[in-house]
Known about the structure:
By secondary structure, the protein is an alpha/beta fold.
Amino acid sequence: MIRFHLCTISFRHQLVSLPELATWAGATGFDGIELWGVHARHLLQQPGLDGRWLKSQGLGIPMVSDYLPLEGGEQEAIRYTRDLCRLARHWQAPKVRTFAGHQGSAELDRGQRKALTRRLQTLTRCVADEGLTLVVETHPGTLADTVDSTLAMLADIDHPAMGINFDVLHVWEAGADPQLALQQMAPWVRHFHFKNIHQRDQLGVFAPANVYSPAGSRQGMVPVLEGACDYRPLLDTLANWQQSLANPAPLDISLEWFGPDSYRVLSSDLRQLRLRVAETGEQPQSLAACQ
């Protein structure tokens, strides 16, 4: 089963309530809503809104996406992580997401990399103690910016509660073939982010400082199946992989749209992605070697 979710970060600059968004998401055919951390916290102030309520609407929250402190005092970082886990449990979300720091792997010396990995390992244990999974997003400018660095990080942390949020576009941005990268990282992949760009030289629009700014450029952002990164082979692989397993675990995919006209684009993307998955043939494309 492939489950598609929208991200509340897509509506970060719009005045939209969670009940309104949930009604639209359910009617449109989404399976759930990925909650941005700042949204998840502010919504605590609204009585009656929690994971149980959302499930009553036929939706789930697969993940709360936040940014754990990987520098500074360890005890402060542990307190922050435990608070985030309590927040995730309030929303009945099984996963919390973070970035692996704020420096690219090539910028880190051995000591810095070791310190960052140790902090991630400590926080992974905290998340595991709460019965949740910590997922690190593949993203430029972090320790998880290339396939090799990500695999080394996973090996160093070596904990079953550590997983990967496989951001397809950023894996492709790093020069890797997403299908081959997925084969290498399959045992750790717990979530996917889908987004796309018209041309590779426009990828800078996804830099956090630009994306989070209301005045930031959105030039080049395009629907998932219309951009320079070809998602079709990966979708076919995922669909066939699901069909080949007797009891497949659900595959969670969030559509991470940062551009304008969110309702129209997300609705269209969901419809086209579901159609592509439904039309996938029975040709032997699987990740069997990675199981």
